[in-house]
Every structure is written in C-alpha cells, then in structure tokens.
Design a protein that fits this description.
The protein is an alpha/beta fold and 479 residues long. The protein folds into two domains: 6-259 and 458-472, Aldehyde Dehydrogenase, Chain A, domain 1, CATH 3.40.605.10; 264-443, Aldehyde Dehydrogenase, Chain A, domain 2 (3-Layer(aba) Sandwich). Helix content is 41%, strand content 18%. The protein is built from 15 helices and 18 strands. The protein has helices at 50-69, 72-88, 90-101, 105-129, 162-175, 190-201, 216-225, 238-251, 273-285, 302-316, 331-342, 378-381, 397-405, 420-429, 461-467; strands at 6-7, 30-35, 40-46, 134-135, 141-149, 152-156, 179-183, 209-211, 231-235, 255-258, 264-267, 297-301, 368-370, 388-394, 412-416, 434-437, 455-456, 469-477. The strands form four sheets. A six-stranded mixed β-sheet has the order 8-7-6-9-10-17, with helices on both faces. Helix 12 links the parallel strand 13 (368-370) and strand 14. The longest helix is centred in the N-terminal third of the chain and has 25 residues, at 105-129. The mean pLDDT is 96. The structure holds nicotinamide-adenine-dinucleotide (NAD). Nicotinamide-adenine-dinucleotide binds next to helix 7 and helix 8.
C-alpha cells in the first residue's frame, strides 16, 4: 500500500464507479488521511455526499430482503467466514489501521483479534437466540413471537478503535438479518472499507454491507437523515450523539448511543496494590487514553493514596512513546489534550508534548498524572481522551461512592479491594453500565453501554443481538 492509494466507497459489493475510471465517485472530492506517528499524509478517501449515501441505501434496500430471508444458520455460516477472513487478513488490517492511527503492535493485534471475535460470537448466538418463542394462550390458539430485522441500519463510528467498533455494531446487525450502511470516521476509514471487501469475498451478498466515507456533517448527517434508514447505531462524542438523538427523535427511529466517559478506578487500602497500580497505568497507556471506557479518575483510600500515586508515577515514567503507547490519533485531539494540560498546571509527571527525539515528529503526548485534584476542576470532570490520569483521595466507603458517582458520565468503573463483599456492594451502587471488580474481565460476551451522559442501548453480548431486531407477535385462532 503506497502513501497515495485512493479509496472509493464500497457500495453494492464493489468499489469502482460504473465507468471504472479514476474519477472520484459522483464527482466528489477526496480527503487525505494522516499518519499521526509522523504527521505525514497517507491514503486518500472519497469525501462522500448525500448522493453517495443515497446509492448505498438503495443498494442496502435491494439486498435486505434476501439476506433477512436466510435462516439464522445460513447467515451464521457467512459470519463465520467473515471472521475467518479477518483472521487471515490480520496483517494487512493491522498495517492499514496503523497507517492512520500510529497504534503500537500489541494494541493493533488486540483490536483485530476482537474484530474477528465479534463475528464469531454473533455467528454462534444468532443460531440459539435469534428466534422468538411460543406464547401459551390455551386450546385453539397458536401465538408466537419472532425477531425481525429493521431493514437498513446506519452505523456511524469514531476514530479511536476504528475496525473494532465497526465490527462491534456490524456483527449483531448483520446476524439479525439487517443490511447496513456504515460511515466510519473520516480520519480512519480504510480498515472498514477493507472489511467490506473481505466480507464480500467471504460470501456476504452484494449490498448487504456498504461503506460510505466522508465527513460527519456531510456523509454522516445524510445517512442519519435518510428516510430509508430504519435504525441507527452511533459511537462517538456526546455532542454528535445529542445531535443524532434529535434527528432520530424527529424521524421516530431507534438508535444506540455509545458516548464518552470519565470513569473511576477505586483502590481501597486492602487491595492488591500491585495489580491496582498496573490497572491504573494501563488506563492511561492503552491507546494513549483514547478509549471511551478508560478509567482515568483514580480514587484511592487516603491511607495508601500517596504510595499508590508514587508507584503509578514510577511506572508511567518508564513508558516509551511508540513502544508502550501510541500518538494521539487526530490533530484536533492532540490540540485538545494540550489545551487541557496548559490549563492545568502542577502535573506530577508529564504535562506536555515531546519536544525532541522521534516522538516530537508525531502527535505524542507525555503520559501525565495530576495528584489530589479538586473534584470540581475541569480536568477532573471532563473527558480528556488522552494519556492523562487524575487522582483523588477518599476517606471511607461512602466517600468513595460519592466521588465515583460525582460525574455526568456512567460508562464503566473499576474497583480494587481485598473485601469482595464490599466490591460487590459498591458495584451495585455505582452508576455505570459495567463495573469490573478486582480486574474482572469485560469481553465480547459482556453487554456494554452507558448510564447518564454515556449514552443508551447496549453493544456486545446477547443484549446487542436483540437491539438490532424488532419483536413481532403473531396470534392465530385455530378453531
Ligand atoms: P465524533 O462524534 O466527532 O465522531 C464520531 C463519528 O460521527 C464520525 O464518524 C464522524 O464523522 C461522525 N459525525 C460527526 N458529526 C456528525 C453529524 N453531524 N452527523 C452524523 N455523523 C457525524 O467523535 P470522535 O471524535 O470521532 O470520537 C471520540 C468520542 O467517541 C469520544 O468522546 C469517545 O468517548 C467516544 N467513544 C465512545 C465509545 C463507546 O463505546 N462508548 C467508544 C469509542 C469512542
């Protein structure tokens, strides 16, 4: 793949305009992607327009009936082959993703593996849980329910985990028999285009998965507003989520909103501090903190607060840019994080960009820790979406709970304590869609979604399968 590869949309099982020429689809313009590790320009994508969205929705509309008519077992077989194709193509997918995100190899591997797992998982569960049930109404009546797809689903995804987040929504939507038009982030579209090509080769019928690239205000807004789209799934910022919720309300269509977070990581004095410290460091380092579920509010019991902070800072200072963590993915996000740092003096470590060495070429920011921050401070309340951790001390369990819930968000929480009963007690009272106690795993199987401003609806797990279907009741009087 050269730096000047030009990508077209993927519509109706193909990527070329009918004339096979080099002109941008529908005469539109192009957008250039950026390698944030070097700030060098990379591939070009088509800047999609409402006309491109129209073509994609029309293709999906044509394809949806045939796809929905397959049995769950028939769709499952195709989904398994897509998972196989992702696994076989992992090196290319990782290269494409790296070129516009600068992610480190371990992170890329994790995301591509998980992308395949979504297809594998929903290929399995749709066969067991994709069907309705019989409702007993007494003699002479046969009543049953069935899950039916919405038809054409619009999936709009962000730049932080591009392929992974696309697959998280696409796999259950396709499993339930919907056709999809996806609109990936304009900064990171290429892996989603590649996925559509792989899916087509794996036997997904033409038009069942279409990808229109371009900006949010143009391609994304056209997709959300399109009368042929019967459901939306959105992952991204609160501001865009709110706008899409208004559009969906106006059109009376359902949508899933997976938005931001400012999630707490609670550490009690009786916790396994070594593991808790490692979790805190991972929260800041994984994807450079550009993870919606990053637990970057570190709440520590007063008696061990300073020791924990000392250990976290010592570990953070060993992290190497480009080895242990990647750059910020977009220029705008880089500037936003630097703005947070400039407005918050007094970092214990970090606090700015790299100014020399190879990292200075890219959008790398020094892993940063602020200790004992004021809970009312902007850095303590707003999602930074960068390698920045803030700490606060708490006195007791009640104080810990109050601090944990003192946020507009509610995506996840992590809690470390030697007292499991306390962990579970607090897990029930923390306002978040998922709580990990002592490192409990959150996987493809575990439903994921927000409380409060973090959104609504659920991705992952069995819950997401039924998000992408509507339940119909059929009742027949037999005699
Ligand atoms: P964003 O809202 O700017 O963009 C997300 C997507 O929406 C992109 O594809 C963009 O082109 C599109 N978009 C933008 N404006 C639009 C409009 N008017 N109409 C339709 N589509 C539009 O978010 P981002 O900056 O790409 O992503 C970062 C945010 O995403 C963070 O706040 C992060 O917390 C959140 N996020 C949440 C989850 C989750 O699962 N909860 C996962 C990852 C990221």
């Amino acid at each position: 793949m050269t730096a000047t590869t030009r990508h077209r949309h993927w519509i109706d099982g193909g990527d070329a305009p009918p004339d096979g020429g080099d002109a941008p689809p529908d005469g539109g313009s192009r957008l250039t992607t950026l390698d944030p590790a070097t700030r060098e320009p990379g591939d070009e994508i088509a800047a999609g327009t409402a006309a491109d969205v129209d073509r994609a929705v029309a293709a999906a509309e044509r394809a949806r009936h045939g796809w929905a008519a397959l049995s769950p077992a028939g769709r499952s077989a195709v989904l398994h082959r897509i998972a196989d194709a992702i696994e076989a193509d992992a090196d290319t997918l990782m290269d494409l993703e790296r070129a516009c995100t600068g992610k480190i190899p371990a992170q890329l591997r994790l995301e591509v593996d998980l992308s395949a797992q979504y297809f594998r998982y929903y290929a399995g569960v749709v066969r067991a849980a994709g069907q309705g049930s019989v409702v007993e109404q007494g003699a002479g009546v046969h009543t049953y329910t069935r899950y039916e797809p919405y038809g054409v689903v619009g999936v709009i995804t962000p730049w932080n985990l591009p392929l992974n987040q696309a697959c998280r929504a696409l796999a259950p939507a396709l499993a339930m028999g919907n056709a999809v038009v996806a609109k990936p982030s304009e900064f990171t579209s290429v892996s989603t285009l590649r996925l559509a090509r792989l899916a087509s080769r794996a036997g997904l019928p033409d038009g069942v998965l279409n990808v229109v690239t371009g900006t949010g205000p143009e391609a994304g807004a056209a997709l959300a507003a399109h009368p042929g789209v019967r459901r939306l799934a959105f992952t991204g910022s609160v501001a865009t989520g709110r706008r899409l919720a208004e559009v969906a309300a106006g059109r009376l269509i359902p949508l899933t909103l997976e938005l931001g977070g400012k999630s707490p990581l609670l550490v009690f004095a009786d916790a396994d501090l070594e593991r808790a410290v490692a979790a805190a460091v991972a929260a800041l380092a994984a994807n450079s903190g550009q993870v919606c579920s990053a637990t970057t509010r570190l709440l520590v019991e007063e008696s061990v607060h300073d020791e924990v902070v000392e250990r976290v800072v010592a570990a953070v200072e060993k992290l190497q840019p480009g080895v242990d963590f990647g750059p910020l993915i977009t220029e705008a996000q880089y500037e936003k994080v630097l703005g947070f740092l400039a407005g918050t003096p007094g970092a214990v470590t970090g606090g700015g960009p790299y100014t020399e060495g190879p990292a200075a070429r890219g959008l790398y920011i020094r892993p940063t820790v602020y200790a004992r921050v004021d809970p009312a401070a902007r850095i303590a309340r707003e999602e930074v979406f960068g390698p920045v951790l803030v700490t606060m001390a708490f006195r007791d369990e009640a104080d810990a709970l109050a601090l944990a819930n003192d946020t507009d968000y509610g995506l996840v929480a992590a809690l470390w304590s030697g007292d499991l009963a306390r962990g579970l007690r607090l897990a029930e009272r923390i306002d978040a869609g998922q709580v990990a106690v002592n490192g409990g795993p959150l996987t493809v199987e575990t439903p994921f979604g927000g409380y409060k401003r973090s959104g609504y609806g659920r991705e992952k797990g069995l819950a997401a399968l039924h998000e992408y279907a509507q339940l119909k009741t059929v009742s027949a009087q037999l005699w």
